[in-house]
Specification:
alpha/beta; Rossmann fold; Alpha-Beta Plaits; 2 domains; 6-stranded antiparallel sheet; 5-stranded parallel sheet; 47% helix; 19% strand
């Protein structure tokens, strides 16, 4: 028989709480379990769950996800509290729930076994209410600190993602810049080699753009680059298609899972879209988008693809 919790200590005030707090009590002796549940409710714990066996404890832990576990070491059946703690730790997948072992055994070896099994603290029965509340306060503070750290880590991760997005965007056109292009292309080459899928890289530049920029001025030149960028962005319909500004009047398109025939069809469609948005050149011609494509199939670069150049008679 496990000794009952000592309730002779003076009444203690409930522990302060910033929100809901749940505790799973694992104890096979009904009277002991009832006494613990009563003390927890008196201490202000909002939700108390109960389990009277090792298997029921693991099931309740997975279903309820309590904030704290009070776990008796000696349980009826073939599995003890050490086994329960190990199962709980395996079920958390990177999370952390404080586990306090309860036992009438207080040797150094018993404490060591409890910590090794996944426990965070150790209470000797009979448990005094004032000690129980003190442990609840301490574990609650640790849990609140961990939650704040997780929140801060998530916010930092989101901020880093936004920063990377800003760093990898071209300020003028809004397309991916050279830095982002290099990173994405490297990643897509590795993916194409791993999956054995084709990958097309299309490099484009605007013929006679310097003459246009010198004649019309940089404001009109910037407007021309923005217009071309909008066209390139519009033709990248699939989630992994990427349009980037390679530098100056040069652009690059990364088209994963696109074979040679698909690249030629894509180039013709791009030319047609550019014709619709033609921008007159001051010397009586339209800008021509000069595009060359590189093709990788089944993880090997295709030198013939790199030498293929398609001229688009497109006003851009």
């Amino acid at each position: 028989m496990s000794p009952s919790p000592d309730t002779s200590s003076p009444t203690v005030m409930p522990a302060p709480s910033a929100g809901p707090f749940s505790v799973l009590v694992v104890e096979d002796q009904p009277s002991v379990r009832a006494a613990l549940v009563g003390e927890l409710r008196h201490a202000g714990v909002s939700d108390v769950f109960e389990a009277d066996s090792a298997e029921a404890a693991v099931q309740a832990f997975r279903q309820r996800r309590p904030d704290l576990v009070l776990l008796d070491i000696r349980l009826a059946g073939k599995n003890d509290g050490y086994w329960v703690a190990q199962q709980m730790r395996e079920a958390e997948a990177g999370g952390w729930t404080p586990i306090i072992f309860l036992s009438g055994l207080d040797s150094d070896l018993d404490v060591w076994r409890g910590i090794e099994a996944g426990g965070d603290d150790y209470l000797v029965k009979p448990v005094k209410p004032i000690v129980l509340v003190a442990k609840l306060r301490a574990m609650r503070r640790l849990l609140d600190m961990r939650r704040r750290l997780v929140t801060l880590s998530e916010e930092l991760h989101e901020a880093n993602q936004r920063l990377n997005e800003i760093v990898e965007l071209d300020a003028l056109t809004g397309l991916i810049n050279r830095r982002g292009f290099d990173r994405i292309l490297h990643s897509e080459i590795l993916a194409a080699r791993r999956d054995g899928t084709p990958l097309t890289l299309m490099l484009c530049d605007l013929d006679h753009f310097k003459r246009y920029n010198d004649s019309r001025g940089h404001v009109q030149g910037d407007a021309c680059l923005k217009e071309v960028s909008r066209v390139l962005r519009d033709v990248c319909l699939r989630p992994r298609d990427v349009a980037s500004r390679y530098g100056g009047e040069e652009f690059a398109l990364i088209l994963p899972n696109t074979p040679r025939s698909g690249a030629m069809t894509f180039a013709r469609a791009l030319g047609q879209m550019l014709k619709v948005r033609s921008i007159a050149h001051p010397v009586g011609r339209h800008h021509h988008l000069h595009s060359g494509r590189g093709h990788q199939r089944r993880g090997h670069a295709d030198p013939r693809g790199r030498s293929t150049v398609c001229r688009q008679g497109a006003g851009a």
